[in-house]
Amino acid sequence: MSETRRPSLADQVYDQLLTKILEEEYPVHSRLPTEEALAESFGVSRPIVRGALSRLRDDGIVQSRRGSGSYVLRRPDRELISFVPLESVSDVQRCYEFRIDVEGAAAAWAARRRDDDDLAAMDAAYREMEETYQQNALGVEADQRLHLAIARAAKNPFFSSVLESLSEQIAYGVKLSRSLTLLDTPVRQELVLAEHRAVLDAIRLKQPEVAQATMRHHITAAKDRMFVGTQED
To answer: Which 3 state secondary structure label does DSSP give 179?
Structure first.
């Protein structure tokens, strides 16, 4: 997803640490070795290790505790590497972070401005997505069509233009999240549909604050479904 570039030493240490976390050499809730020990292990300086740890913190994978060190909060789902290279995890998360704010705002404006045609477009996209879920298909296009219909209902072309310009990156993340959902229990699939229904219900009822909150919750949950463990321990 990101521009091709030569990985820095910090990037390389990040990838190696993430691999160790994925393989549970460092399990969820465990304490990582000290910066000094990691620097010696990887043959790099402590500032390089610090940079890698900073990125892992930004990704919500590790947490630093004052006077105690760094601890693993969560790890990528083992199936994740079947679909994407491990180094792309940060890119996927950054796209989701951007969507949380932009699409949350779009949903709020949609709740204020939607008309009957908008509701019809959203309902049609939702039914299509529901059908693909019943068929255990990915449904990436239907998912994107629904989110775009919500953005268009905001009656502000900047929202829909942003989603259209990022369609490839968004589809990448949706495909990943959806692929993991298909491998999980049917309950998870129903949960995803319920999240979308909650957003549409709030827009239909003209509840901007609820629409924003439910959209933000949905996209945050989609991002977090790539991981095992929680950020809230």
So the answer is: helix
47 and 105 part of one domain: no
Question: Is position 176 within any domain?
Answer: yes
Q: Please report whether residue 50 resides in a domain.
A: yes
The residue segments making up the domain with residue 58 are 7-70
Tens of pLDDT, residues 98-114: 999 999 999 999 999 99
The pLDDT of residue 34: 94
- Residue 57 and residue 98 share a domain: no
pTM: 0.81
Q: Summarize the confidence of residues 79-93 as an average pLDDT.
A: 75
pLDDT in the model for residue 232: 46
